[in-house]
Design the sequence.
């Protein structure tokens, strides 16, 4: 259930919720319209977030969908009640990448023509970027089925009207720097409090963009940017950190730079490749896609009408595989981008997981390799070596937390080493509340000893996306009833996750109190 509060919830977010509930009920727009006594076009407008909603209409929608989806009043956190200890079964399909969609939305500012992004996940992070784009004059329209986005930037962006609230609620706003520096000589962007220049998460972006003439000063919650115009034609950018968003920012800056840019120590991860594939459609020539050295031949005037299908999300794929593994179930996870899961699968095989892969097939973007993976009930054991992330093609940092709950199901002790994030590992110690033996060695390392005799508990949701999902998945394995409180953060990166798990047989109830 989502509470409607004008200061917190946009019409687009409400429309996305209604569309997701309708689809989960197996209803077409016409069928829902019939139940409400309205037209299909009205339902389409509601789901696109382009129609105001009265209290009376919201009440009728609740009744028509036979669900307590919408409540009027002050914002209250949503919670999940999980009855665990049951095996799952069936097939679940991986949705498109959150990180890929965010990068592509930012990159659409490079194109003076129309961009259609196909298969975009309707998640909070996407809706916030869409709100920011609309506020600066970009025309952004969802298709009638709510799956595709049409994006048309204006000739001149109105950055003075930027939605500062939406911008400050997404760290992705920093990825506007690369697209804007070739459009504006001076501009300002809001940034989230506590994200100061000079910190580890921001300074690498500055290092990547200074060769393009960008100078940024942070004051009073804003980036104040100025761009020098006397930069060389051919640029050489060496990234001090092989970060995904840092690489994307450098690529977007290079896309409209007059000349050739060589980017070294570049990330070659899935969202970076998605961005490169899209830019190629715009006429930007990029050498070295999938490697750590990229050569971008910029085009100062990009004007093309293009369609691009966002690739599938390997982190969601890992989440769904984990659901099957920890519940000792046989489930099939369809449309897994296997190129970005190979180290994870090799590690799981070393731990004794039995699984089968379908023949490979190609994603809708024509580039990404997909498989269907069927996991089977398995006797797991701890790996000999520690489990740790590395830049692609290593184990994905966002997939590392899932190995904590998997290790808790395995015999023996597994060392989990999260060397990238300070203190993220502490959130995984909440698994002890469900019966796991998790010992924190330092802010970056955990010892996890199994197998665990899981039992239900009530836990407040960690303030980090992936650990939050890890706790939810552990609750699926825990006998009895568990409660996960304050789960709104999960909607930031997953579309209708609990509803889709329910389709596999999970017993999950959403409630508020």
Sequence:
């Amino acid at each position: 259930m989502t509470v409607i509060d004008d200061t917190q919830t946009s019409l687009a977010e409400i429309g996305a919720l209604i569309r997701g509930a309708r689809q989960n009920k197996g209803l077409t727009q016409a069928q829902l319209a019939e139940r409400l006594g309205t037209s299909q076009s009205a339902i389409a407008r509601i789901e696109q977030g382009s129609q105001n909603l009265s209290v009376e209409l919201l009440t009728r929608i609740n009744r028509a969908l036979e669900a307590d989806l919408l409540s009027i009043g002050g914002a209250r956190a949503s919670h999940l009640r999980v009855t665990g200890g049951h095996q799952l079964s069936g097939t679940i399909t991986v949705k498109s990448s959150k990180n890929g969609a965010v990068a592509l939305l930012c990159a659409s500012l490079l194109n003076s023509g129309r961009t259609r992004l196909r298969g975009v996940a309707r998640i909070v992070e996407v809706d916030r970027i869409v709100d920011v784009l609309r506020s600066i004059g970009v025309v952004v329209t969802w298709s009638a089925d709510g799956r595709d986005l049409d994006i048309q930037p204006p000739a001149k962006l109105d950055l003075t009207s930027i939605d500062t609230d939406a911008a400050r609620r997404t760290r992705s706003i920093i990825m506007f720097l690369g697209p804007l520096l070739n459009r504006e000589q001076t501009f300002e962007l809001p940034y989230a409090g506590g994200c100061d220049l000079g910190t580890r998460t921001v300074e690498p972006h500055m290092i990547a963009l200074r060769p393009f003439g960008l100078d940024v000063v942070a004051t009073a919650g804003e980036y104040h940017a100025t761009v020098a115009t006397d930069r060389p034609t051919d640029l050489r950018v060496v990234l001090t950190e092989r970060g995904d968003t840092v690489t994307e920012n450098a690529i977007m800056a290079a896309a409209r730079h007059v000349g050739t840019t060589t980017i070294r120590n570049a990330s070659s991860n899935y969202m970076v490749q998605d961005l490169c594939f899209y830019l190629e459609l715009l006429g930007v020539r990029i050498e070295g896609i999938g490697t750590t050295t990229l050569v971008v031949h910029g085009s100062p005037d990009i004007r093309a009408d293009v369609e691009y299908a966002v690739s599938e999300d390997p982190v969601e794929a890992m989440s769904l595989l984990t659901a099957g593994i920890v519940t000792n179930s046989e489930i099939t996870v369809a449309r897994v981008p296997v190129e970005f899961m190979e180290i994870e699968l090799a590690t799981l095989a070393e731990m004794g997981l039995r699984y089968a892969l379908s023949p490979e097939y190609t994603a809708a973007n024509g580039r990404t390799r997909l498989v269907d993976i069927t996991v089977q009930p398995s006797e797991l054991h701890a790996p000999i070596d520690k489990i740790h992330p590395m830049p692609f093609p290593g184990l994905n940092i966002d997939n590392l937390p899932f190995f904590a709950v998997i290790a808790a199901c395995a015999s023996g002790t597994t060392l989990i080493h999260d060397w990238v994030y300070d203190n993220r590992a502490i959130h995984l110690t909440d698994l002890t509340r469900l019966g796991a033996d998790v010992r924190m060695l330092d802010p970056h390392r955990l010892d996890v000893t199994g197998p665990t005799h899981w039992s239900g508990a009530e836990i407040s949701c960690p303030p980090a996306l992936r650990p939050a999902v890890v706790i939810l998945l552990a609750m699926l394995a825990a006998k009895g009833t568990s409660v996960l409180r304050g789960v709104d953060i999960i909607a930031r990166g997953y579309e209708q996750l609990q509803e889709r798990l329910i389709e596999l047989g999970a017993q999950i109830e959403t409630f508020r109190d």
Notes: The first strand starts at residue 2 and ends at 4. Residues 118 and 501 are 24 Å apart (CA to CA). The chain has three domains: 2-72, 78-95+312-512, 98-309.
